[in-house]
Design brief:
The chain is α+β, with helices and mostly antiparallel strands and about 850 residues long. It is built from 16 helices and 51 strands.
Length: about 850
């Protein structure tokens, strides 16, 4: 009896303990001077994404205050406050408080301060009620008060640990001396500062470095290679998969340089491990972490693995070898596998010798040369020559050749001319990616047989010169004969025409004359297009007709001719001339020049031999040419082009008329986005904008834009989603019909997906010759992009990331807004907005909600 009573009492006490513990382990939304955070409580962000509280490691007697993603395991502490001064795990009375001077403090059970935010505040000791500590959904832990101008007096993002979160800044302020770096933990269970730290270099262009502390000094351990305005060129994964989203803001006037990256649809973070490895982690399913990119991965990634003038290639054995024209500095060490001593030159360079009393002819025979090495991670310690429009690889070579101290050069797209005057260190050769680097060597190292080749080359040059002189003499004689009657009147006729056209262009489009554009003479365009003959007509758009042309030198071009009857043509011409001349990307069509003469307004583009995507996709006889690898490549190309427009270009551009007919295909069937006449430059802001002129194509316009004129980059995302589903199915969204049912193309695609029949959407001409996983991933992405709510759609950064990895996004929602095309035109007046729709082979339109 007594034993049973004791058991009941024990159970009651246990229940009471659990109940009291449940109350004690409460979640709070803020910390104030009257509401501290106690052991067992957690501070939670508004969206329940992040959580902050006291924690300890297993088998540890130490306790910390840290921050982590709330529902993702294994739990990763992305920030720790008291890294260097842990509490005893037995101290259950410790708390995180707002102190009397307005600082955030960790105090132990005896109210001794263990850690403090340590900022000078304007808050008086009697007015700390205005101070509050909050955890934001970005993972930033902030202290605010009503006294300071901007409200924020302290934030954890300014005091990073071993982890960097999206929107957090890594870099420095050279004027104030403030520097944001990541510092590794000492071990997996010890968050105190370890040996490695990550930061941004001050050079131009910058690199990310991992440094290692070796007692009294630091040494480079790994580096990313220079920044090329969208990615780091020394990380092959970024080159091949275009994992962009990073932004490097270099403000010379303020003296600041900061690196950050955008938030994706799913949680991500980057850390420096206690072993010095940088890791990019993502959680798509929301329950665990997946490794994305890590570095260093192999011995060649370690800084200076092969020493000066040595090159490392991971796929070879041994991994190190000397550059051509160089030999190991120590054969003995090299044979032992110790390559860090590097290499030295075999032959002294010509420019280093005494050149007194040497003739020009002698110098030309003995001058140094350059050996090309492909797919390299460029050496460290580069010097940057500012890139101009006229800058070329040849100009870069001349600059290096004329400078005796220049040891190598590289002309890198989106960067310009890089040269090296110090020992070439940390060179790596990739199997793919990288850039071409030209190494300066003595003439004797340029290869055997050089004198014979030189003689042959000189002979050929002499023959060409003689033939050229004969041709020039012949034309001069004929010109002299014509000059007897015409004089010199026509000598500068072409130059005058070009100058007049340039002046007309400046007057037409205003002060923003794009001087880098080539101005074409109208008569030369007439000749190139055979007087705009119908046989050369490539197509017709809202802007006007497009013609194929051929310049005298044999180069093929596409000429877009402004239709004089086009109401919006003038604005489109001005918009496209100013816009596309500033945009350069492999997935955007390239403008070559323009011509303005009277009412004639012409734009000249590179010629796309395979015309537009619709000529294949919607042609029953030709669509089989588009096999699945080709279609998937087109989808990826369009995604990369849009990412450039939205994020990576110097301007933030919304295309507003993305559709199948505006995707051009080059000779290798690579996609290039065209027709920027309706594009819009917007400010770098996430806010939606409103327009009274709705432009675009029915079927590709998002609901919020078609019905209310509200647009953002999510308008292009919606159009991209429609485009993806069309590419997969080979069906036009505007002419889709399902047994007379009132079901639009998007609703049909979603129903198939929802029923687990997504592969039924695939074009029948592919006949199973496709990757099921890639198709399902693309259907998934397409449906995510066409969701009704703009906020639910991914960004193009999300899209490119999903396309280039095996990571899926969240489940798409059922589209409520659909476009249904009946057999009779239905006109829905919109008195508030003037609508302009570009040609899409569809004249029957009805926008309905269901």
């Amino acid at each position: 009896m007594i034993k049973g009573l004791n058991s009941i009492i024990f159970l009651m006490l246990l229940i009471l303990s659990l109940l009291s513990l449940g109350c004690y382990c409460a979640e709070v939304q803020e910390i104030t001077n009257s509401k501290p955070l106690a052991v067992g409580q957690t501070l939670v962000s508004p969206g329940r994404i992040f959580e902050l509280g006291f924690f300890s490691f297993s088998d540890s007697s130490k306790q910390y205050v840290g921050l982590w993603h709330k529902n993702i395991y294994p739990r990763k502490q992305v920030w720790v406050a008291n890294r260097e001064r842990p509490l005893a795990v037995s101290d259950g009375l410790a708390s995180l408080i707002i102190s009397r001077n307005g600082n955030l403090e960790i105090v132990d059970g005896k109210q001794n301060s263990v850690w403090s935010s340590n900022v000078t505040s304007q808050v008086s000791t009697s007015n700390t009620s205005s101070v509050v500590a909050l955890l934001l959904d970005s993972g930033n832990f902030v202290v605010k008060n009503d006294v300071e101008a901007d409200g924020v007096v302290w934030q954890s993002f300014d005091h990073p640990g071993d982890t960097m979160l999206p929107t957090q800044l890594l870099g420095f302020d050279s004027k104030s001396g403030k520097r944001n770096v990541l510092t590794s933990w000492k071990s997996e269970n010890d968050p105190s500062v370890g040996r490695f730290w990550v930061g941004l270099s001050a050079e131009t262009p910058s690199q990310v470095f991992v440094w290692v502390n070796n007692g009294s000094d630091s040494a480079p351990y790994w580096r990313s290679g220079p920044w090329d305005k969208s990615r780091f060129i020394g990380i092959p994964e970024m080159n091949s998969q275009y994992r962009s989203g990073f932004t490097l803001d270099d403000n010379v006037e303020r003296g600041t340089k900061y690196l950050s990256w955008d938030r994706l649809l799913y949680p991500t973070y980057e850390e420096i491990s206690s072993e010095g490895i940088t890791k990019y982690m993502a959680s798509v399913e929301g329950s665990n972490w997946t490794l994305g990119v890590e570095a260093p991965k192999h011995p060649c990634d370690i800084y200076g693995a092969c020493g000066s003038f040595g090159v490392c290639k991971a796929s070879e054995s041994p991994i190190c070898k000397c550059l051509k024209g160089f030999v190991p500095k120590s054969d003995q060490e090299w044979r032992k596998g110790n390559w860090t001593g590097g290499c030295v030159r075999k032959s002294k360079m010509f420019c280093q010798r005494q050149m007194t009393n040497r003739s020009v002819a002698a110098r030309e025979k003995e001058d140094d040369g350059f050996l090309k090495m492909a797919r390299l991670k460029v050496p460290d310690l580069h010097e940057f020559y500012a890139s101009f429009v006229s800058d070329t690889s040849e100009n870069c070579k001349i600059r290096c050749l004329n400078n005796c101290s220049c040891l190598a050069y590289a002309f890198v797209n989106s960067i310009g001319c890089l040269v090296w005057s110090k020992d070439l260190i940390d060179i790596q050769q990739f199997s793919s990616g990288g850039v071409d680097v030209f190494i300066r060597v003595a003439r004797a190292e340029m290869g055997e047989g050089r004198p014979i080749k030189l003689i042959v080359s000189l002979t050929a040059i002499c023959l060409i010169s003689i033939l050229g002189a004969i041709v020039v003499g012949f034309y001069r004689m004929r010109g002299h004969q014509r000059g007897k009657t015409t004089g010199n009147a026509g000598k500068y006729e072409l130059a005058d025409k070009i100058r007049t056209s340039r002046d007309t262009l400046r007057e037409y489009i205003g002060k923003d004359d794009p001087y880098e554009l080539l101005i074409y003479d109208f008569d030369s365009i007439l000749v190139a297009t055979d007087n705009f003959s119908l046989t050369n007509k490539l197509g017709q758009g809202g802007f006007g007709p497009v013609y194929k042309g051929k310049l005298p030198e044999g180069k093929e071009i596409a000429v877009k001719r402004l239709s004089s009857s086009s109401g919006q043509g003038k604005e489109e011409f001005k918009n496209e001339t100013l816009l596309i001349s500033n945009l350069q990307h492999k997935n955007l069509v390239r403008i070559m020049g323009c011509c303005v003469k009277g009412d004639e307004k012409l734009l000249v583009y590179e010629f796309m031999p395979n015309k537009s995507l619709d000529t294949f996709l919607f042609d029953p006889m030709r669509r089989a040419v588009l096999d699945w690898p080709c279609r998937f490549n087109i989808i990826q190309g369009v995604a990369r082009g849009l990412l450039y427009l939205h994020h990576d270009s110097c301007l933030k551009v919304i295309h507003r008329d993305l559709k199948v007919s505006n995707i051009l295909l080059d000779e290798k069937m690579n996609a290039k986005i065209s027709d920027f006449g309706l594009a819009r430059i917007v400010q770098e802001t996430p806010d939606l904008e409103n327009t009274k002129r709705v432009v675009g194509t029915i079927g590709y316009m998002s609901p919020e834009y078609a019905m209310g004129g509200i647009f953002s980059e999510k308008l292009d995302v919606y159009s991209f989603g429609v485009l993806v589903l069309e590419i997969i199915s080979g069906k036009k969204n505007t002419s889709f019909c399902l047994h007379d049912q009132q079901q639009g193309f998007l609703a049909y695609a979603w129903n198939l997906w929802n029923e687990g029949k997504g592969l039924a959407l695939v074009d029948e001409v592919l006949a199973g010759s496709y990757s099921s996983s890639e198709v399902m991933r693309c259907v998934h992405i397409g449906l995510l992009c066409v969701q009704d709510n703009a906020a639910d759609r991914p960004t193009m950064l999300d899209v490119v990331f999903m396309l280039s990895s095996n990571i899926d996004g969240p489940q798409p929602k059922e589209p409520v807004f659909t476009v249904v095309y009946s057999t009779t035109p239905v006109i829905r007046p919109q008195p508030q907005y003037q609508s302009t729709f570009s040609t899409n082979d569809t004249s029957i339109t009805a926008i309905e909600g269901r």
